[in-house]
Structure formats: structure tokens, C-alpha cells
Amino acid sequence: MANILLISGSNLELLGEREPEIYGTTTLVELVEIATKTAESLGHSLEHFSTNAEDEIVGKVAEARKSFDAIIINPGAITHYGWSLHDALAAFENPIVELHLSNPHAREEWRKTSVVSPVASGIISGFGADGYRMAIEAVDGLLKKAIQ
Amino acid sequence: MANILLISGSNLELLGEREPEIYGTTTLVELVEIATKTAESLGHSLEHFSTNAEDEIVGKVAEARKSFDAIIINPGAITHYGWSLHDALAAFENPIVELHLSNPHAREEWRKTSVVSPVASGIISGFGADGYRMAIEAVDGLLKKAIQ
Amino acid sequence: MANILLISGSNLELLGEREPEIYGTTTLVELVEIATKTAESLGHSLEHFSTNAEDEIVGKVAEARKSFDAIIINPGAITHYGWSLHDALAAFENPIVELHLSNPHAREEWRKTSVVSPVASGIISGFGADGYRMAIEAVDGLLKKAIQ
Amino acid sequence: MANILLISGSNLELLGEREPEIYGTTTLVELVEIATKTAESLGHSLEHFSTNAEDEIVGKVAEARKSFDAIIINPGAITHYGWSLHDALAAFENPIVELHLSNPHAREEWRKTSVVSPVASGIISGFGADGYRMAIEAVDGLLKKAIQ
Amino acid sequence: MANILLISGSNLELLGEREPEIYGTTTLVELVEIATKTAESLGHSLEHFSTNAEDEIVGKVAEARKSFDAIIINPGAITHYGWSLHDALAAFENPIVELHLSNPHAREEWRKTSVVSPVASGIISGFGADGYRMAIEAVDGLLKKAIQ
Amino acid sequence: MANILLISGSNLELLGEREPEIYGTTTLVELVEIATKTAESLGHSLEHFSTNAEDEIVGKVAEARKSFDAIIINPGAITHYGWSLHDALAAFENPIVELHLSNPHAREEWRKTSVVSPVASGIISGFGADGYRMAIEAVDGLLKKAIQ
Amino acid sequence: MANILLISGSNLELLGEREPEIYGTTTLVELVEIATKTAESLGHSLEHFSTNAEDEIVGKVAEARKSFDAIIINPGAITHYGWSLHDALAAFENPIVELHLSNPHAREEWRKTSVVSPVASGIISGFGADGYRMAIEAVDGLLKKAIQ
Amino acid sequence: MANILLISGSNLELLGEREPEIYGTTTLVELVEIATKTAESLGHSLEHFSTNAEDEIVGKVAEARKSFDAIIINPGAITHYGWSLHDALAAFENPIVELHLSNPHAREEWRKTSVVSPVASGIISGFGADGYRMAIEAVDGLLKKAIQ
Amino acid sequence: MANILLISGSNLELLGEREPEIYGTTTLVELVEIATKTAESLGHSLEHFSTNAEDEIVGKVAEARKSFDAIIINPGAITHYGWSLHDALAAFENPIVELHLSNPHAREEWRKTSVVSPVASGIISGFGADGYRMAIEAVDGLLKKAIQ
Amino acid sequence: MANILLISGSNLELLGEREPEIYGTTTLVELVEIATKTAESLGHSLEHFSTNAEDEIVGKVAEARKSFDAIIINPGAITHYGWSLHDALAAFENPIVELHLSNPHAREEWRKTSVVSPVASGIISGFGADGYRMAIEAVDGLLKKAIQ
Amino acid sequence: MANILLISGSNLELLGEREPEIYGTTTLVELVEIATKTAESLGHSLEHFSTNAEDEIVGKVAEARKSFDAIIINPGAITHYGWSLHDALAAFENPIVELHLSNPHAREEWRKTSVVSPVASGIISGFGADGYRMAIEAVDGLLKKAIQ
Amino acid sequence: MANILLISGSNLELLGEREPEIYGTTTLVELVEIATKTAESLGHSLEHFSTNAEDEIVGKVAEARKSFDAIIINPGAITHYGWSLHDALAAFENPIVELHLSNPHAREEWRKTSVVSPVASGIISGFGADGYRMAIEAVDGLLKKAIQ
User: Fold this and answer.
1) C-alpha to C-alpha distance for J91 and J89, rounded to whole angstroms
2) Which residues pair with A4 in a beta bridge?
3) Cα–Cα distance measured from residue A59 to residue A75, given in angstroms and rounded to the nearest whole number
4) pLDDT at residue G16, as a whole number
5) Average pLDDT over residues E88-94
6) Is residue G100 among the annotated active site residues?
7) Which chains sit next to B, with 3 or more Cβ pairs under 8 A?
């Protein structure tokens, strides 16, 4: 049984309302529910941490080194310039999954840089709410592989 | 009558003291006074929100979607890299005015990128303290146009 | 009482007809009327100079050094490549306001370079017709500040 | 029940042998097996098409417009320069999933451009063999969403 | 029957004499004759407008909105930096053909940017004098297609 | 009488169906018919060669050196990266016409590089199906000029 | 006797544990101890301020204008994108020392931009824990020079 | 005896008044006098042509092909973007001297591109008024060398 | 005794005829003869594989992993964009020699990128036909060194 | 006791006279004195090597491999382009300190590249003469750490 | 009477022989003779210093600060990368003339950067041997102006 | 019988000791021996010239124009910035072979520019010590071809 930390970055609390043609109509609460159920069905526990502040994510990731087996992170726009987040994640030694509801590579130029990608185990983007289920299952897979 | 939110970003609390040859000698309190008076003379109310933290602006803008008719924002240096602010403002559906005391295009190269400009209704820069009166009046104009 | 020169650059005579979703439905004649009335109400006189030719603007700006207290200029697309205009304005010692109906920073990449911005006192963009009133009032403010 | 086309591009037949520290030890046959089983368990059929030739993928994608409900594609290095593949996929109207075993964004600079990403519904990268299961399930999700 | 405006930009009056190894030996008068004959044989009328001044082309294009069914334009070197011309053509709602005697893409780097291409219906380059006949016939085709 | 080789590159067999708002509704068979009729009416013969594979075009162009008087080529997206095609065409000594249905310069950034343009006699783009008639006539003109 | 402010930015609380092959094995507490002892031995007092949040550093630097004679700052990854920090430091009139444990110029490309360097009096990087002693002594030197 | 054409481009009529710390205090009339006297002392005649309009320079250079033995040109800021001027000068077959009062390479980045340099015989910059004497003598030298 | 695979990429079958001032007058058959004789004189066997198709080279290199001791490859223009070839060669564990008849670094800008160079043991370019003899001898040297 | 080599590169013999507002008023002789005294007080010996010639530094560094325990180098402007110096230092296995009197990152763009930084143990810049004391002490620290 | 230092940089001793179509047929001895005679006729003395070594020029310029009134320098290819030369000249307080036989701006891209131009009083290029006479006379002019 | 000049540039005297995993274990003396023996076995004489100083190579190449039939040059890191060397070699009319022990294209970005390549007859890199034998034989081939 693993402890999984799900981190939601900037502007994600608006999900469901904000630009639904891009981000879909599911709310953050519903997304977390999807993730939690998937985690529990696989025997894992999930903690959700949501903030607009990069420094709070950095702090949370630092603590997570001792208490979590994996991180799933959708940093919102912090993805594209939060190099402190990069360094925090670089120091985390377990699996990291980068998760986006939309596909940033099909959008503006500045969304093509990700500070997380160079330190992520894997990336899932463009599948909307279903990405949350996928990410938990992917973490489950990565953890099993690590044990082998 | 409209509710206008005036947002002051990083380093603006030093106004009046910091590099007066660039930013002028008016203090932030005085600037807000100018804006408030102008707003009231036009029958609007003004709330001022001041912080050095991008995440707090992001949170405030998210709330503002329900309660404000317009945003005037002088983000300070957050202008040039705060892409979370961009996404927050992109989700705000009423008028947005980007406001700068100095003219960033006449300064360092990195000041030429603005994360706010692509989502702003209009931009005012370089008029010092008078820009605050102009911004309120400009919002007044944008709101009247929207009603027509 | 000040003499203000309002300069209209390339393609502005089409205003009201051309791409109204970007430039609005007000004609150039109407814009000048707005500016004139505002100027007169503040005790200033306004001369309007309109041309598609950069060289004619350059010539007018050169003459203006002797006879005008401020320049408001909407150069149209000359904004983005007319370096002779830059040099002409650099030699003008009174306030210069750069004015655009739309917000160039929210459009094509090539509209992000302005030859005027480095030599402008202030910039107003994106407020449509109302920008003309704002520019006159801004000039009034700049001139008062200069006298102090 | 849906018909899913799984496309394997250049150098994938070497999987299991070639640079296992990057691509893992699973062979292409095994990967297809994972995908097939997942598809069947969800009531879908899967066809696998494997080639080193971009033009053959282009031809296959063109045919697929009539007979397949979704495409999952791991183009190998064709990902990074095969613009004909881009155009072929752009003309395919059902869901497209871009799939990579490793995370290209954590490797050489030239692997950061993908001709597929701008036309993909979603992207999965860095999960090794497990990505094949994930991709099928993601397609299942996308198809259900399309029906709603 | 359509009114076609043929515009010749900078340095074209030297044609026939200037760098004949690049631009051929036909004079501008002869090119216009070719265009006129082709137009008349198809039942159209042609007006030719020739100038070295971008502003005069801008003015002519503005007028042309009311009186011409199509524009064929060989802007000479104005092609590569005349953004006012871009904006003027963007406001013209009928077909626009960009025409060059030589093939700019086989020459200096700076000739690869065209301010006209983004707003042109079609482009013909490198066929020397014969391009003028081709352009008229192409306009004829575009107009017929528009009627359908 | 001349032998003309018409080459159709990647994704052109989908013409008429694929993205008709960009490429029109004419099919490749119809385009070839237009070209053939125009060629025959001018006393020339036409061979059409269609493939998604750059290497097959390269091979065909190599053979064409002995048996064709001109090449008309619409390479599809191979236009933008197929440097082997560039070298093949560079070794062909008779006229080469580069042909596109749409205007690549009004589309994505990557469509602005053409490997064919530096070795083409002339370029025709943006005229849809009519471009095929134009290209044949242009070749006819180039061959007549070569004889003089 | 001078008051020195030592600022520790993002991810520094992990020092000693995080990537010791890059950052060494000394903890932040130990580094502060080194700095404090050095300061005291030179007759100065030291205050340490540690946070992952750029805005808190910005606020602290603003206050420091009144109460500190020098700032030593190791901003962590904020170094590379925190332009608000740049503006805060630009308004501080006493000596500023930029301090890094490792040598950023020998690492990733994005670590070569520093928002602090343009406003720093001096830079010390790559000496690990010893850099903290060096920085205090350097400040001592800068202050003595300022007095002369 | 040779006919020399001296061309003055944009903003040069302000010389002597405009930014004297860069351009010196000599007026354009005085500069022409220096050039005329030097020319006459060497047995040459000089015509001076002054305009802010690139198109007029282009027209003048076209005429000059028949009647002048050399061109000396100080194009003002047209130097940096007037590609039509480039093409006009490229068609002039006698010596061309590019002349600047100040040294553009010691100023802003955009002043480092010259459209004239690639087609100039020689360049003189930074010598202020004395450059006009130098340019005439340089032309004299170039013409003598051409005769040999 | 070693098995050497010599691979000839795009457009090489035209050698001897195509642009002889760049590529020389020796035919591909003769080049292979030179290579074969040199190989045999050193006790090695040589297989030659020639194609215009990148995918066939990729396939051949994949097979070669089991049966060849070294690869000599002149990829023609595939050198400059064939990243699938890069990946194929990266998986080959014996010596690889990149071979060009001309010196690509003395030609067009786009010939300066080679997808092969980062994975080649050594490079020989610019020696024309003699390069084939040199490459075989170089392979002989590399193999002997590997044995030591 | 360690042997330290202090290397002074181009233009440093002018120190004290040349641009004192940038480089201070201390002469090179005085700087060496500071370094020598600091070294001796720590029980080390110092040799100073001064030259304007990169090749002489390269030669000296090569010899130093056998006889010195550390190098401190202020290369002057050789810092920014002397790649031979880079290679020489890369072959030196003991500590290397890069030292600058001023802070190159606060100056011209070209001063931001350092050929030394990628191979330096640590960097000290902007502390003027005091940097020489600091560098010696830093070397002392690095050597002690190496012994542990 | 002034002392003028003429400096000849790399490869200039080959003048007269090397690539005469670019550099002319005059030898360095003859160029110096031209310069000397011109200097003497104006009452000045000239010393010539010729070397292929940048460091020797740097040393000579350092000495020249005490004994020369002006420097004329043709650095050869050192012009394009010798930043130590830049710093040496930046410390010379009297007039500096940059001199080239050919016009570097009409040649390869890398010849467009000059380390000397930012610190030169004036530039003369493209006039061949006559440039040496011009440079002396220009220095004479600069010195007279300095005296006024 | 030909005279061959072998030039060794910066840092090559350290060969055998310096970074043997990149440059191998053969010393420069041994490399010269290999070259000399190969030259003599082919009836040629070899002179070796070794220096860290670019200017000495420039001087040697200038002399070599009279007395040598070919140059083989391994410039060390001078390869990447020594444009004076470029100009010296450009003036040498006999064969030039650029030689590197390692393959610079598989290393740092800055090693991908070579000032020698644009003027080299041929290039050999990555074959270690064996490259010296190859280079001599290649020169032998080039000289024989020149005679034919």
C-alpha cells in the first residue's frame, strides 16, 4: 500500500467554470474524487494538496520526501516558469507523474516549456478528467516495477 | 454603478521612495486615493488589493469573477513572468486594464514581455500617478460600451 | 494654453469601415472630434495631421519642434518598422503619447515591436475611441507636471 | 465496440534489445499483446501496424479514416521531423493518442519537437510498457466521451 | 466583367535595364501590355498603378475597396518590410495575387519575409514576364469561383 | 512537344475529402485531368507520379533527367523537410515548378521553409485546382523561353 | 558594527540531504552558524531569513532598506526567474552579495540567467559551505570601502 | 570631371539642432558646402538631393544611373530598414559611398543592420562633418582607380 | 576477418553525372569497387547496400547488429534530417564511420547539422573517391584497436 | 603547504589607471601583494604569472599540472572567447578559482559567456581588490576539503 | 604635431599577394608609405606596428596611452573576436580609427561583428589603399576638433 | 615528392596525459612519428610545427605558401574561434586537411563551429592516432589528383 500525493497548482480551483472548452466541465472536487476512488480500489491512500502558491508546493514536496511514495502533479501555469518547483521535485526520489487536463503542446508557444518534464517519470496530458484515473494507475504500475 | 478591483503587485508599497526618477514621488496610498476619488466621482466603488505574492493575486482574481465588474492591475515585475496570473485573468470575463507608472518598453529587454497584455482590454503606461485617474475613467468607458 | 499635434498614420482613414471587430466603428473624423472637444474643454488647441506617408510625419514632427507643446501619435502599422519616425520623435523635446485603438500586444508577433515606445512619454492602447479623450487628458497632465 | 489502430514507427522492432536503460526490456510483440488484451477486455478490436517508413504510416492513416475509430501512435524518431505524418493525422477525425515509452522532454533538445502533439487528443509518455495499457484505456474514455 | 488593379511597387520602372540576369529584359510597359491584353481577352478591364512610394500604394488600395474586383501586386522590395501595405491589403475584401518576376525564396535571407503573403489569395513567382499573364488568368479563376 | 512529369507527394490522394476549407473539393484525379488536358491542348504529354514516399520521388526525379523536359511538383508536407528531394531536384537541369493548392506562407511557421524553392524555376501557390492549369502553361512558357 | 541580512530562498531547507553531490552535506542550520560566527568575529550582527516564497523575500528586502547595512542572498532557483526580487534588490542601496553553493554556470542552460546579478555588488559561487564565511568577510570589506 | 550625387535621407534637415551630442553642431547646409567645395577643388560637380522619403531617393537613384558618376549617401534611419533603397542602389553601377556622421555600431542594436552596406563600395562613419570632405575625396579616388 | 557494411543513401546512384564539380566524376559502382578492393586487401569482406529510402537503411542497420562488425555510411542528404537513422545507428554497437565525398561544412547552412555525427566513431569528408579507401582502412584500425 | 598559481590575463597590467570606476584604483602589483600575504599567512606559497597572451597562459597551465596545487585565474577579456584556455584548464586536476574585479554579469551581453566557468571549482566577482584575499582563502578551503 | 600609431593585425603582411580581388594589389609596405607621407605632409609623425598576435597589439595599445595622440588600426580578422583588444582600446583616451581595406559588411556573416567598432571614434572601410590616406586625414581632423 | 606541413595547435603537447578517455594515450611525439613514417613511405617529407599560439600558426601558414605542397592541421581548440587562422588558410592555395583526434560534433555545442572547415579540402575526425596516417595518405591522394 502506497501513499500518493496529488498536487494541484495555480487556477485549478476554477475548474468546471473556467474556459470549459479547454479544461472541461469537471470540478476539482470531482477530479480528486476520481483519483481517490482509483487509488483506494488499488489499495493506495491519496492526499490532495491544492494551492495557487509555488512556494507552498515546494514546501509540500520537501516534506513529501519522508512520507509519500509518489507524487502526481498538475501545476497549472506554474508548469512553465516555476524553476523552484523543478528543484524541489528533483530532490524527490520516488515516481513523479506530470498531469495536464489539456494538451499544452497544442496551445501557445510559452506552454511548450515545462519545468517538471525533465524530472518527471512520466507525462499524461490531454485526456481531461480521465487523466486523473490514468495517473493513479500509472503510479501503481511504476511502484510495482520499482519493487521488482 | 460598478465595483472596480484595483490590484497592486510586487514592490509597489515602496512607491514614492524607490527609484523616484523612474516611478515618481507619489506613494501607493496617494495613488489609491486618486483612483478612489475618480471612481466615486463617476458613481463607482473601488476596492484596493495589494500584495507581493502572485498566488494571492491569482486567488483574488478568481474570487473577483463573482463580485467585480472590472479589474485594474499594476502587477509590478510579476508582469513579466507570472503566467499563473495570465491564466487567472484569462478566466475573468469583464474589462481588464493593465497599468504601469513607467513605460516598460523604454527600459530593459525583459520588461518587454507582459503576461497580462494578451488578456488585457487596454493598456496605460508611462503617465505616472495620472495613469490611475485615466485607468478608472477608461474602465468607466469600457463598461458603458459593454452596456450599449 | 497648449498647442497639441495629433498625428494619424497609415490606413487610419479607413477607420469605421476596416475590420470593425478590431478597430471599432468610429470614423477618423469622429475620433478627431472627440480629441478636439476634449482639448478645447481643457483650454488647449489641437491640430490634426493625417497621412499614409512616414516621410510626411517625419517632416511634420520636425516642424512641430518649434510650434507644438505635445504630440499624440497613432502611427498605424508604421509603428512597427518606421525607424525614421523614431529618430524624428527622439528629437522632439516635449511630451509624446503613443496611441492605439486596439492592443497590439494581443495580436501578431510583429506588432510587438514599436519604434515609438522607446521615445514615448506614455502609451495608451486598446480603449478604442475613448483612447483619444484619454490621450488629450494625459497630455494635459504631463504638461502641468512639466510646469511644476 | 470500436476498431483501434496501433501504429509503431521507426526502430521499434528493436525494442527489448536496443538501449534497454532508456526503452525497457519488453519487446514490441509483448507491447502489442498488452494493448490487444486491454482492448479486448474493453470490448474493442485492435490492429497493429508496424513500419520504419513514414510514407507507409501516412498511407495507413489515410485508409484508417474509413475503418478505424481511434489511432494510438508511437512514431519513434519520426515524431520529431515527419511533417507528412502531421498532415495525415490532421485529416483523421477520431481520437489520436501519442505514445512514447520514454519521456522525450527529458532527453536531447531535438526530441522536444513533436509533429504529432499539435494534432493529438492526448499524450502519454515515460511509463514504458504500461503506457500501452494506459493508451487503450484512454482511447476507451475518449470514445465514450464522444458518444455522450 | 471585372475591374482589376495592377500595382507595381519600388524599382519596377527600371525593369528591362536593371540586373537583367535576375529580372529579365522585358520593360514594365511591356509587362503591363501583357497583363492588359490578357485581361481584355477575358472581358476584364485593367488599371495600372506604379509608384516607388508605399504610402501611395496604401492610399490606392484604400480607394480600391470601392471600385476594384481584384488586386495583383508586385510590390518590389516593399514586399519585405512594408507592414502598412499589409494592413491596407488586409482590409481589401476581394482576391489579391502576389506577383514576383524572380523567385525570392532562392535569394537573400531577408527576401524570405513577405508582408503580403499572409493576406494574399495566391502567389506567383519566378516566371518572369509570363507571370503577368498567369496572374490575370488566376484572378479570372478566383472571381469565377467566388461567383459560384 | 515536351514530356512533362507531374509529381504528387504526401497526403495528396486524400484531396477533395481532407480539410476542404484549406485544400478545396477537387480530387487528385480531377487535378491530374485538368493538368493533362491543358498539357495536351498545348501539344505536350503529361505523366503523373503519385506517392507518399520521398525516396520514390527522389528515384523518379533521378530517372526523369533522361526522359522529361520539365517537372511540376506538389510535394505535400515533404516540401518542408525533404532535403533528399532538394538534392534530387538540384541535379535536374530542365524547368521545375513548385505547386501548392493553399498558400503555405499564410499558415503555420514550419510551412514557411521549402526545400524545393531554392531549386525551383518558379512557384505557384494558393490558387487551388486552377494552379494545375497555370503550372502547365507556365512550363510551356519556360520551355519556349529556353528554346529562344 | 553592521547589521547583515542573510536570505535563503527556495529549497535551501533541504540542504545536506538533497543532491549532496551538487550541494554538499552541510545543513542550512550549519551554514547559518558559519555565517553568524564569522559576522560576530568581525563585530557584526546577522539575521537569517529563510523562505521558499519569492514574495516574502521581496517584502523582507523592502523592510531591510531601513534596518540593514548589507544583504547576502542565496535565492535558490528563484535566482533564475524572480524578476520581482530583482526590483526589490534594485531599490536597496547598501551592498548586496549573491551567493551560490554550486557553480550555476557549469550546469543547465536556464541556470545561466540570474535576476540578481545585474543588481549585486559581488558574486560568490561554487565554494560550498565556505562561501558563507567568504560572503560575510566580503560584506565586511565592502562596508569598510564604503566608509572610506 | 565627374558628376557626384550627394543624397541626404530622413531627419538630416534637423542637423545642428537635433541631439548635437551625437550628430554635432554643423547644419546640413554647411555639410553640403564642405562637400561642394571639396568636389570643386578636385574638379568635380556636386548635386545635393535631400528628402525624408525613401521613395524619392529610390526615384532619384534610378535617374542617377544615366547622369551621375558616383553616389554619396547618408540615408539617416532609412539605412536600417529601407530595402527598396537597397535594390535601387544595387542597380547603380558606379561607386557608392555610405556616409554617417556618428558611428552606428556604437549605438542601439537595430542600427547595426544597414541595407546600404552590402551594395556600397565603401563606408565612412563617425567623423562628423569631416566625413563629407572624406567621402568626396574617397569618390575621387574610386573614380581614378576605375579609369586605370 | 571482419564483415563491413557500406551504406549509400539518397541520390548517390547519380554520382559521376550529378554536379561533378561538387561530387567528382567517379560513379557509385567505382566507389564500391575501391572500397571492396581495399577491404579484401585487408582481409575483410564488404557488403554494399544502396537506397534512397531512410526506412530501408533503418531496417538494414537493425539487421546489421547481428551480422556486421562495422558500418560505413554516406547517407546523402538524409544526413541532415533523418533522426530515425540516428536512433538506428545509436543501437549499433560496433564502429560507425560517417563518410561524405564533399565537405558539407563548406556548403549551405542546413548541411552543417548531421544526425549521424553524434553517434559516429569517426568522420571523413571532402576527399572524394579516395574517402572510400580511407574509410575501410579507418574501420580496419578501429577494429584492431577494439581487439587490443 | 600548497603551491598556488595566480594568473593574470589581458589588460590587467593597466589596473589602477584604466577605467577606475569599473576596475578600482588598486594596481596589479598591489593585488599580487594582497594575494601573496594572504597565501603566506595561511602557509602557502604563491607564484604570479601575468601576460596578455592566451597561448602563454595555456602553456603555463600545462606546466602547472605537475607543480601547482591550485590555480586562481583572472583572465581579463580572454574569459569570454579563449576556448584553448578552457581546454588547458579542463586538463588541470586541482582546484581552479575564476576571479574578476568587476561583476561581468552586470555589463555587456558578450561578457556573460565565460570559457572558464564550466571548468572552475568556484567563482568570485565584483569585490575588487578584496577578491584576491578571498580567492586565496577559498583555495585554502578547497584544498583542506580535498584532503579530508 | 601629433604622434600617430598605425597598427596592422593578422595576415596583413600578405597584402598584395593574398586574394587580390578582395584586398587589392598594394603591399603593406606601400600602405604604410601612403600613411607616412600623408602624416608628414600634415605635420604629424607615424609609427607602424605590425603583428599577427592579438596580445602584442594589446601590449602596444597599453604603452600607447602615454606616447600617442591617436591610433589607426586595421586588426585583420582579430576584428571579429579579439575582445581583449576591445578592452585595451577602451582604455585609450585619444581618437581611434578602425580601418579595413574591404567592406566587411558585404562579406560573410561572422565579419559583421567588430570588437573595435564600439570603442572607435570613426570607421573607414572598403576604399582599399586610399583608406590609409583617409584615415590619417581623419585623425588630423579629430585632433583639431579636440583642441577647439 | 611533396613537402607536407603538419601543424599542431593549442594543448596538443599534453596528448597522452590529458583526458585520455577523449584524446587517447598516444603522445604528440608518437603521432608525429606515425605521420612522418607514412609520409616517407610515400616519398614525401614532413615538417612538424607545434605551438599554443594562433599568431604563430598564422605566421607559419603565411610562409608555407612558398615552400609547402600541403598542410595538415589539428588546431586544438583554436578550431572554434581563430578567425585569423581562417584567413591565413584561405590564402594558402594547396590542399589543406583538417584533423581531429576526437569527433567534435559529438561533444559540446561550441565545438560544432570550425573556422577551418570552410577552407579545408577535407576533414578527418574521431579516428585517434590513426587519423595521422590517414591524413598523410589523403594528402598524397589530393596531390596526385591535382597533378592529373
Assistant:
1) 5
2) A46, A70
3) 14
4) 84
5) 96
6) yes
7) A, C, G
CB-nearest to G11 from A56, A81, A84 is A84
For residue F1, what pLDDT band results from cuts at 50, 70 and 90? confident
- The closest alpha carbon to H9, from H84, H75, H85, belongs to H75
- Are G116 and G85 in contact by the 8 Å Cβ rule? The answer is yes
With CB atoms and an 8 Å threshold, state whether C84 touches H52: yes
Residues of chain A contacting G81 with CB distance shorter than 8 Å: 81-83
CA distance A44 to D12: 34
Buried b / exposed e along H60-80 (16+ C-beta atoms within 10 A): bbbebbeebbbbbbbbbbbbb
CB C78 within 8 A of CB E84: yes
Please say whether the beta carbons of B5 and B49 come within 8 A.
Answer: yes
Give A122's strand partners.
Answer: A97
What fold, for B3-146? Rossmann fold (3.40.50)
Chain centroid offset of residue C121 CA:
12
CB contact under 8 A, E76 and H86: no
Q: How confident is the model over L95-106, as pLDDT tens digits? A: 999 999 999 998
Cα separations (Å) of A16 from A53, B69, B89? 20, 21, 16
Low-confidence ranges of chain J (pLDDT < 50): none
Instruction: Report the 10 Å Cβ neighbour count for G75.
Output: 24
Nearest-CA neighbor of H22 among H126, H117, H105? Answer: H126
Q: Does pLDDT of L66 surpass 80?
A: yes
The C-alpha cell that represents G52 in the structure block: 521558499
Query: Which chain G residue is nearest to residue A115, measuring alpha carbons?
Result: G110
User: What's the pTM?
Assistant: 0.95
Measure CA L22 to chain center. Answer: 18
The alpha carbon of residue B31 and the mean position of all alpha carbons in its chain are separated, in whole angstroms, by 11
Question: Is there a contact between C65 and H17 if contact means CB atoms under 8 Å apart?
Answer: yes
CA dihedral sign of residues B32, B35, B41, B42: negative
A91, G19 in Cβ contact below 8 A? yes
E contact residues 111-140, partner H, Cβ 8 Å cutoff: none
Q: What is the DSSP string of chain B?
A: --EEEEEE-TTGGGTTTS-HHHH-S--HHHHHHHHHHHHHHTT-EEEEEE-S-HHHHHHHHHHHHHH-SEEEEE-GGGGGT-HHHHHHHHT--S-EEEEESS-GGGS-GGGG--SSGGG-SEEEES-TTHHHHHHHHHHHHHHHHHH-
The whole-number pLDDT of residue L148 equals 64
* Residue G90 CB coordination number (10 Å): 18
Alpha helices (runs of H) in D10-127, residue ranges in sequence order: 20-23, 28-41, 54-67, 83-90
Cβ burial A28-46 (10 Å sphere, 16+ → b, else e) = beebbebbbebbeebebeb
Cell of L30: 608518437
Instruction: With CB atoms and an 8 Å threshold, state whether K114 touches H105.
Output: yes
Q: Domain boundaries in chain A?
A: 3-146
Is the CB of residue E53 less than 8 Å away from at least one CB of chain C? yes
| Residue D94 · residue D68 · CB < 8 Å | yes
Radius of gyration, alpha carbons of chain I: 14
Residues 6+ apart with CB under 8 A from J33: none
Chain I residues lying within 8 Å of L123, measured CB to CB: 103, 105, 123-126
Amino acid identity for residue A89 in this structure: L
Using the CB atoms, write b or e for H133-142: b if 16+ within 10 Å: bbbbbbbbbb
Q: What is the mean pLDDT of residues C93-115?
A: 95
Q: How far is CA L15 from CA E10, J69, L52, L105, in A?
A: 61, 21, 13, 20
**At a CB cut-off of 8 Å and minimum separation 6, what does L89 contact?**
L61, L71, L73, L96, L116, L119, L120
